[in-house]
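Quick note —
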Amino acid sequence: MKTLLTEAVRGKDADYLEIRFEESHVTRIVFRGPTLDNVGQSVVYGGNIRALVDGGWGFVSFNRLEDLAEKVALAIRQARLIGRARGERSQLAPAPVIQDIVALKPGFDPREVPLDKKMSVLEGYNRAVLSFGDPVKSSSVNYQDKYSKLFFANSEGTYIEQEKVDVGGNITAVAVEGALTQVSGVGFGGSKGFSVALGHENEVLRAAKTAADLIKAEPIKGGEYTVITDPILTGIFAHEAFGHLSEGDNVYEDKSLQKVMTLGAKFGEPILNIYDTGTDEGARGYLKYDDEGVPTEKTYLIKEGVLVGRLHSRETAGKMGERVTGNARAIDYRFPPICRMRLTSIERGESTFEDMLKGVKLGVYALKAYGGETNGEMFTFAASEARMIRNGQLAELVRDVKMTGNVFTTLKNIDLVGSDFESHESGGGCGKGAQAPLPTSEWAPHMRIQKVVIGGRS
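Predicted structure written out below.
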């Protein structure tokens, strides 16, 4: 394979040329209530060629390695036509030339676990939810694992083979009473193989109980509150509300965002540090090299409240005159890599949970996330569950907690960051540019935010 790919990209009439090829084995298991809705195993086999000429990209995907020279020539012709129309020069940030083979550690390969064992574990979780009793009426279980062997070669002399694993799943309990439906769930995931799917029995039972309790809970009264977010919701905020604004292509293509996301701008208090990394083994967002063959790293976005970085592909880094970060990712061979997150985190602070509760006369402790959306710098998140805070103490369970606001105002209103730190994972993934679900991670501590607007009953 090395000879085939390296010869195909060597000495061609293009500013830059690369080939990515993958063989992936995927298992999916889905339960809907008592019904096994889907179980399947598939093999994904294919590759792509990207060519860059005079600022124009050509892209050709394929499922067979035959006639590779013709496919390379086609990608170059596409790039030349686009480059001629755009009239730009090619701009790629420099990256090291790599020769490496990255193999899985023993026990990480999910293909080594029989399908019937996977089925048994997930069916057990599903059965635990369904046997909980009223008002839990239904359930859903979604599981996927993926083993990939990836090959990458470019015209600069890089050649990389790497094995990667992604495992993710979610178990959800659905409680129903009349017209009211409430849900609570458990997520798991990682890059260490099937072991991350084991041992969640107690969490599943707690989720079923929470769904049942939410049916009896009162909806929150709308207003402005001091909010403490648990590590899961803190991580989701970091990813959805700020991480996407830090992706180099989003910034480069949006002139108004460029004015806001100016390096050196103050976005929060000195306690606030946000970073994105591909280097934490075990995370779903772990990868040694991105899909342009660039080594990953820990990239600070906000350091002591100040914007210090963003997430780049080689092209966005080159066009913006900044350093490449190893954030070019593609969901599979059918797509070109674009700027994507890996593991996005708010860094551990110094405050305990008790510190956060102190002095809060009336507030909300918001846990997990159930839906949400962002529109530029505006966001809306729904907490899966929440408790009122009254006079510095956790109080009654409430439901229908939807937080909304401006991300930059919210960052400035973060006044405490927890000394705890949770490496929580779940199934699903990130969506962007028709590429979803891409495996990402969001690890974080608790966080306290002042003046959060929460919709609810009047």
